[in-house]
Amino acid sequence: MVSLQPPICNFGWKAPVFDLPGVDGKRYTLENIRGRNGLLVMFICNHCPYVKSIRDRIVRDTGELLLYGINSIAIMSNDSAEYEEDSFENMQKVAQQYAFPFPYVWDETQQIAKNYGAVCTPDFFGFNAHLELQYRGRLDSSRKEAVMNAPRDLFNAMVQIAQTGKGPLEQIASMGCSIKWKEE
């Protein structure tokens, strides 16, 4: 397992479009999932210990962000042929087990992860109402173990984006496992 950190936010960068199948049988696009005040795009997977350790907090934060007009979507881009735990069937099980309040979609070709420049799981991209990037940072100050009362970096940034259209100037990069790319 390689631990990576994505680059810091490229403010104003426009969200690349996508059209991906969800575990619920629906298709999701950038246009049909965006919220009135913004969109949180998360690259996650099922097998990464970093993601496993924050699932409950992701569910909590994305559920609360709905109240601020921020929708969320989780994209799984790993090579599921090499990582069975990340299969579409297992994505369905995880989404149901954790009652994800957001679509969980499959990037089978990995093109969307490449378009976004995603490097790890979790990798968070917070966009404003104009789909301009305003946050690319960590969930909170916890790593693999939850820290009681840890400041909710992602949640607070997305609330600020919902209210002002702008993200915080200071952001701390997320940390996680590398995306498992297919051999070309």
UniProtKB/TrEMBL annotation:
Domain Thioredoxin residues, every copy: 9-144
Molecular function terms, GO-annotated: antioxidant activity; oxidoreductase activity
Domain of life of the organism encoding this protein: Bacteria
SUPFAM superfamilies: Thioredoxin-like (SSF52833)
UniProt xrefs under InterPro entries: AhpC/TSA (IPR000866), PRX-like1 (IPR047262), Thioredoxin-like_sf (IPR036249), Thioredoxin_domain (IPR013766)
PROSITE patterns: THIOREDOXIN_2
Name assigned to this protein: PPO candidate 1
Organism of provenance: Candidatus Nitrotoga fabula
Lineage of source species: Bacteria, Pseudomonadati, Pseudomonadota, Betaproteobacteria, Nitrosomonadales
